[in-house]
Amino acid sequence: MSLNIIDLIRGQLGPALISQSATQLGESESTVSKAVSVLLPSVFTALADNADKPGVQSTISNSSASGLLGNLLSGTAGNSMVATVLSAIFGDRVPNLVNSVSEYAGINNTSANSLLYTVTGAAVGSIGKYAEDQNMDASGIASLLRDERQNVASLVPAGFTFADTTQGSLANADEYPDAAKITSAEPAETSTVDVNRGGNTHVHVDRNDVHKEGSLWRWLLPLILLALAAWFLWRQCDKSAEQSTVMTDSTAVQSEPAAVLTDTLADSSMTTANRESMAVALPSGSSVNAYRGGIEDQIVAFLNSDEYKSADDDALKDRWFNFDNLNFEFNSTKLTPESQVQLDNIKSILAAYPDAKIKIGAYSDKKGDDNANKKLSQDRANAVKAALASPQVVSAEGYGEEFATVEESASDMEREKDRKTAIRFTK
Length: 427
Hints:
It is a single chain. The protein is an alpha+beta fold and 427 residues long. The chain has helices at 5-12, 15-25, 29-49, 54-66, 72-75, 80-90, 94-105, 109-133, 138-153, 212-238, 295-303, 306-310, 313-316, 339-352, 370-388, 412-415; strands spanning 277-281, 287-291, 320-322, 357-363, 393-400, 420-426. A 4-stranded mixed sheet has the order 3-6-4-5. A two-stranded antiparallel ribbon has the order 1-2.
């Protein structure tokens, strides 16, 4: 598959959810992140191993319509759909998994159990949403899970043992005969929220372990990554001496952030790490996980305001709201996987306000060919409209550099504020 389904699930389990979960559970963000780093590969691999079970297939197929993704924090604990899946994939070993995660991450059992439901809800909901978008049947879903299984198994943090916690998944004796040899070394503290990097980096393996190739990669991969990073830095330093003959992608840099359009938006210098996460309440009683001052927070407040309710179309024309977590791959109209989280949030908001209609706008800076910038921005606006796939999105327009204010000769960082994707409401 061209899209890594794990990226979609991890997008649902991002910094905002980690922070809010830690607050609700009374745990630290680092320990919650550690627990999630273990639970994600455990749950996904168990889903893959039990993908042919009717209960698993039906729950995944029905998850999109249930609104599971829109209410991960408060809607998964005790959720009957999630409970059904957990019973199908782990059976009576759920308590063992909860205990192991609790001991490994340093959280209490109640917190570990709550996070198990949250991670399972995120996994089932993300897979179900993707399957619905791709018109997958039960066999297609099962194939998707099996294709990704080995990739996910490699995400298990060293130092954690799945023995006696799973039902034919990561502790499968036939596939992992030496799984029981992994010792629970004292895990190192980490503050990361990337769910595939938590936990201890040391593992004691028998010299006769059949998975020597996997052990080789444990030390070889970091060396490769360091070499690539050094090459990238060298290229960046040498770039000023080069005369490039390739047309610059002036509407984006790789993983470009949307720029701030009005003073009501979040400070563009504010990073993910220091932004305050929140649950944005919707009229349906559900909520979406976002950042205070982000696009979700702003548009819900605007839709609830008298300003919107009394405004005509002319009054709405200059009231734009910038995406703050929507990015494109370099020189492409392909949205990055992490963008799906904000797109899903906008979908949920539109569904909660069925009378609302929006227009998509995409903008570039002044660098590069005017016509090429115009075309790329139009294509990107169309891509966002297609991704939202809602009749409430009435139009999409690429403005190119028409409204850019920073000179072409300015630095890339200075020109960044002219590169953005935004929405406005229309009546």
